[in-house]
């Protein structure tokens, strides 16, 4: 059965996402009146607001699950949020002498706000398309949402990163259906505001190996449980 795509809902979602992003980064509306961490969240809230509005307006049966296939929210929270937050802030402490745990969880919540839109809503709405087409659409819309559309070399590289990121994070979402999980993966690069050097890169690779292994093992376990139930 072919899944019908609700282009009207997608349009509403994206208009709201773009409008919120524009107000946050291209105007001075919030300059000097909110805390820096609050401003980080305001910059990323558009996709979540757009998703909620589109689902409500079009009465969509669109699942938005924090825990996904996991029996409770604790497991993905520990693996995809607590583990990176503690490991990355510990690395920060040894390099910079700071332990920015509040910043770490702000970045994770920012990633969640985006992932509610890009994976939780848009990927769900486009799942009737071939994976390559859906990934390309998400990547282009996600890239344009950042409002950096100059055709520079760095922006074209960023578009490529967005495409492969959309594919990789999309795979995690397909396996877990967990917004907590994809928010953790999404946030990995955003933690390192001072750049990614050797130690940071090693930690990123270690986390990715742990996460991919965890997803594969739990996916097999979940499929086995479903087979027994049937």
From TrEMBL:
Residue intervals of the CAAX prenyl protease 2/Lysostaphin resistance protein A-like domain: 99-192
Keyword annotations from UniProtKB, A to Z: Membrane, Transmembrane, Transmembrane helix
Keyword Transmembrane: yes
GO MF annotation, one: endopeptidase activity
TM segment ranges: 7-25, 37-57, 69-87, 93-113, 125-145, 151-170, 201-218
Matching InterPro entries: Rce1/LyrA-like_dom (IPR003675)
Pfam families: Rce1-like
Listed GO biological process terms: CAAX-box protein maturation
Domain of life, per lineage: Bacteria
Protein's name in the database: CAAX prenyl protease 2/Lysostaphin resistance protein A-like domain-containing protein
Source taxonomy: Bacteria, Pseudomonadati, Bacteroidota, Flavobacteriia, Flavobacteriales
